[in-house]
Design a protein that fits this description.
Two copies of one chain form a homodimer. Chain A has two domains: 53 residues, Homeodomain-like (Arc Repressor Mutant, subunit A), CATH 1.10.10.60; 183 residues, Tetracycline Repressor, domain 2 (Orthogonal Bundle). Helices cover 65% and strands 0% of the residues of chain A. Chain A starts with a helix and ends with a helix. Chains A and B meet through helix 5, helix 6, helix 7, helix 8 and helix 9 of A and helix 5, helix 6, helix 7, helix 8 and helix 9 of B. The structure holds a DNA duplex (30 and 30 nucleotides).
Chain lengths: 244, 244
DNA sequence: GAGGTTCGGTTAACACCGTTCACTCGCTCG
DNA sequence: CGAGCGAGTGAACGGTGTTAACCGAACCTC
């Protein structure tokens, strides 16, 4: 019985080793280098043994994506605790800057998770727990929930969003409420209007665009130092969304 | 002599065939399927023969990127001629919608050109002609030049952009002027201020972010119809930049 | 304790990949 | 005509994902 637990623990340990090695190969040599044989070689076993843990290379990559998301969420979480609980604007800025810093420090992982056409993020529902990037989305939305909960100075009239978006944005709002409730923060439903959901969407679009452009080097001109560019964008964004 | 021309023409023809087949494999089965052996197989030759045309697979992919950019530029160009010459706002909207339409219709190519960490877009100077994505950037900036040239209603005070950005933005402005001049449009240098360059940058960030998020399915909630989402973003963008 | 089962691991093999090398063979040119 | 050139070939090397058969030790049951 306890021997069974020991072997089970062993299995989980080698599983962790597999993913750790895969991760190391990803960060050092890019996604193309994360190969089953290389992982096995580094672990002192043979490639087919990995099929006892993952049904295919793509399956392993999928789990790797989830690991990457979890790490990003953890890093953002540590960034967050260093900010004063009441400083909502500071929390938002910490998340945005942390996201950029992480993306620049881990461009391969960023490309894998946030710029992969094969990602299933669009199709499967958020919040059910089986979404690879859910752990990231949760912390992102949780912070938003905290900011929203404490009577923030964000005032967005709901009637400025077009009618065609209300159904989707309402669903988004509902998911937000669930996520925020799960994170422990209490938030009255009427404090999170459709307009705020719309603003959060715009926030994500501009943050993602700026970070992805910087990571992929797709700015339309050579940038000597991208950090001021990001900071001014962030300042504009915070102002435009009404967090000034 | 004329026989030499004939063989030269032959070589160019098979070169086109190679890239056409590579392109076909890319659009149907993704970037991983564009393999030298598959291309050769489809062309009825053997893989090593391709080395008479490209020094490596990566070299071929690079040229493929350029082809994709040229195609995108051509498609945007045809979109553009259908818009009234004097309708500057309509031209801008046509480019943005055309970019989105192309990205959604060619997600693999989009990922290859605009979301590849190995892209050299950041390091090599724009406008020298050897940049793979220059053909796209040129048409994008040319349209901007046309809009700017005809005394557009865009009014952005230059003193709103932070000091840390002026050197980079000035270089961007100068490149813009060169590109616009090359495209035939005449534009007084003082009509293109730093503030407008900054606005164009923000334009690109938000357009790219929206399109990339849609292509990669990375919106934070399931979207039933992304087109209204894009259109409202575009409307906001045009308004924020002062083109309303 | 003996026997069957489970399961992590191995070896061998298949099909495919990029790439190199030596080699044809037809065309061009002097 | 002969030399040269250059596109294309075939074989080969090392690498890949994946499958199949097998092995051996740990486990459960009797």
């Amino acid at each position: 019985m306890h021997m069974t637990q020991a072997t089970r623990r062993d299995r989980a340990a080698t599983d962790r080793d597999i993913r750790r090695q895969a991760r190391a190969l990803l960060v050092t040599d890019g996604p193309a280098a994360v190969t089953l044989r290389a992982i096995a070689r580094e672990l002192g076993i043979t490639a087919p043994a990995l099929y006892r843990y993952y049904s295919s290379r793509e399956d392993l990559i999928e789990h790797l994506r989830a690991d990457v998301c979890a790490d990003l969420a953890a890093e953002l979480g540590t960034d967050l605790v260093e900010v004063d609980e009441a400083d909502h604007l500071g929390q938002v800025l910490a998340i945005c800057r942390g996201f950029r810093r992480w993306a620049l420090a881990h461009p391969q992982e960023f490309g894998l998770v946030f710029a992969s056409p094969s990602s299933t993020g669009a199709h499967c529902p958020v919040g059910t727990g089986d979404n690879p990037q859910d752990s990231f989305g949760r912390i992102f939305l949780t912070v938003a929930g905290r900011v929203l909960a404490n009577g923030l100075p964000v005032t967005v009239p709901d009637d400025t969003v077009p009618d065609v978006l209300v159904t989707d944005l309402t669903r988004f709002r509902d998911e937000l409420l669930v996520t925020i409730a799960e994170s422990g923060t209490d938030l009255a439903a009427d404090q999170l209007g459709i307009g705020i959901a719309h603003a959060m969407l715009q926030f994500w679009v501009r943050l993602y665009g700026q970070v992805a452009l910087e990571v992929f080097g797709q700015f339309p001109f050579p940038v000597s130092d991208a950090e001021p560019l990001f900071e001014t964008m962030l300042a504009d964004l915070v102002r435009d969304v009404g967090l000034g």
